[in-house]
Amino acid sequence: MSTESAHPNAHGARVTVTIAARRRRNATGVVLEAGRRYRLTAEGDWSDGGIACGPSGYLSSQLPCPQGCALALTERLRAVPSAPWFALVGMIDSDRATAFEIGAGTVLRATRGGELVCCANDVPAMYWTNRGTIELTVEPLEAGDGTAGPTEP
To answer: Can you give the pLDDT at residue 7?
Structure first.
């Protein structure tokens, strides 16, 4: 994990952390404050069992059958079923009820406080096939800063 500040939340500082594809839960050390807005941006490449992609992931429909068809049947088992395969996703304190899609970037209003935990959007039993890392930058926003974010975990 690399950081641009000694403490991720010190005085509204930006922090960049590394998210590993093979880890089912990547604790970031970033503690979100309830009600505060954050800009999350991600860069890099990782792969899902040999399927290379960026932090926005890929859709089952982008793959030929039988692989794409088999993936479509298990989409409901992912951390965020509505998000693409291998999209970067986050949650607060590893609580799946707070899970949301980050992809290449989003603006988040934290509905509760806690540590930001991230992972690739995959099924629990298949993280062993994953490779690579994504760099995630978390930037606290001041009131009125950034764009209105649709994400409200």
So the answer is: 46
5 has a pLDDT exceeding 50: no
What's the confidence (pLDDT) of residue 144?
Answer: 54
- Give CA–CA dist 61/69, Å, rounded: 8
Q: Are 64 and 53 in contact (CB under 8 A)?
A: no
The tokens for 35 are 């009600």
List the one residue out of 95, 75, 98 whose CA is nearest residue 85: 75
| 40-44, 52-56, 125-129, 132-136: the lowest-pLDDT one | 125-129
Distance, CA of 71 to CA of 39 (rounded, Å): 30
18 sits in the region (left: phi over 0; alpha: psi -120 to 50; else beta) called beta
Q: Where are the alpha helices (DSSP H) in 4-139?
A: 67-73
Pairwise CA distance, residues 52 & 45, whole Å: 7
In the block, residue with structure tokens 């298990």 = 74
Which of these, 79, 113, 119, 116, lies nearest to 99 by C-alpha position?
Answer: 79
